Here is the input.
Amino acid sequence: MYYPDEIVEDVIRQNNIVDIISPYVQLKKSGANYFGLCPFHNEKSPSFSVSESKQMFYCFGCGEGGNALTFLMKYENASFQVALTRLAERAGITLPAVQYSDDARKAEEVRKRLLAVNKETAVYYYRLLRSEKGSRARAYLKSRQLGAETVRNFGIGFADGASNDLIRHLKEAGFEDEEILNAGVAAFDEKRGLHDKFWNRVIFPIQDATGRVIGFGGRVMGDGKPKYLNSPETPVFDKSRNLYGLQLARRSRKGWFILCEGYMDVISMHQNGFPEAVASLGTSFTEGQAALIRRYVKEVLLAYDSDEAGTKAALRAASICKKSGLKCRIIRLEPYKDPDEFIKQLGREEFEKRIRDAGDMFLFEISREQKNYRMDDPASRTEFYRYTARRLCEFTDELERDNYIKAIAGRYFIKEEALRKLTDSYAGAGYGGGENETATAAKMPGRERKYSSDQGSGRKDRSRLENERLLISMICDRPDLYKHISGYLSADDFTDGITRIAADRVFSLAPGAGNEPVLASVIIGMFDTEDEQKEAARLFQGKWEDFVGDRDERTAVNELAANVKKSAVEELGFMAESDPSLLFKLIEEKKKLEELQKVSL
Here is the structure.
């Protein structure tokens, strides 16, 4: 549900972030802030900071940051709705009631009924497994070495050989034929009419992140086809946007998920102490599933089958993970085919070792490609180096690219400097994941790109961003100072992206704030995604008080504003070289800069 910004801001303001975080993290006050061990990564020295004055948290170790709402969403793996409701109840704030249109109300009622059908079906199959009819299925599960607790945790059941026993049960429970059919637990044809979709199969209920049964997978007993049968797509089941085992894996707090191919791999891994395992649902891994994973973790370990088909699927999944901003590594399972077989043969400790040794996915791809070249032939070896250099252009971060260059040079007997020059030459020609800054500069002889986005790595970029962050933080804490720079500076003078959006919001709130600070938590709460909120939290980590020192605060804020304005004018001048229509604007902005520089002296 959508809530107006004013309501969300009020909920955040009415909750002291120190009180919210204290039950989860042991905090100790040090100076103006509180510190403790970060709950989002393993550390021995406290780097997790909570600011009561700014109502925000930030970890200097892993970079996690946000407000009270962000903390609850991340720590509890809670939705925005759940976290906001908890904070509102704590503050005694009544949130607006959900308002549905007639169509939305009908759709919601349909969803509730389908979920009810699925729940009753899961219970029926669960009980049937434990009845006399389920003896064969129980024997199969025992042969797969699944314990009673594991079977219970995953709600595993059994569908017997009758054609419509489930349908009879559901109709007796009060469900209509149409509801049973639309839930996907039954099928219809002219010859048999309405009949059970699953029969003679071990049943694996598929649950969403909150534990609601949304579909089913069935493994046939014997040699019937297909071996695995899944529920069709329904209003409550989208197989491309759900994962098997997610309802358990999301609570593992391992920092990663292990992505498998099948139900049994996930179940076996959970039973053996790897609760972070999940699997796609009878389809190839999708972008929707990657987006779902990003809500909980930032890294995926691939444990796909070790055969050729599994390797190709892993490479495809890795590509999707990369596009979705997920770090990806691969677990080597040789000499066994899948995780279930590996653990049965070598045990948990050996699998833990394979997790620790999980290989970088990029290096894995390079090693596979290397097999297509004859490394004893100079010409073929050179082609391999050229291929590798082109692939290295995918890394736009200079430090990351340099680390891969060092790793590859050591593995494949090429001098680092030679590989670096070859990579730079391809980058200059525009190779990589889109046109990067190096390529842009190379295509403009005699010109050098001076500025980049918030992630820029050059010294000038960092200086510019530092000035912008200090100024935003200073105006947040002392909004009364904004009047001294408002006529010379606007949000358009800030680096495009999170920084500019935050500056615009701070500048819009400052005039009406009086002597009350603009809470950093409110600015952070403007942004929707976790990554955006983390980036926004970084804006408030600089200590503008250190910049001011013994000087007058008005002089200091004018100096910061002049520094920000100077960077913006230099960038505008660079753009005006190729776009003369910007010259008049450049002249106007230079005048403002000169005036700012005068008052800051």
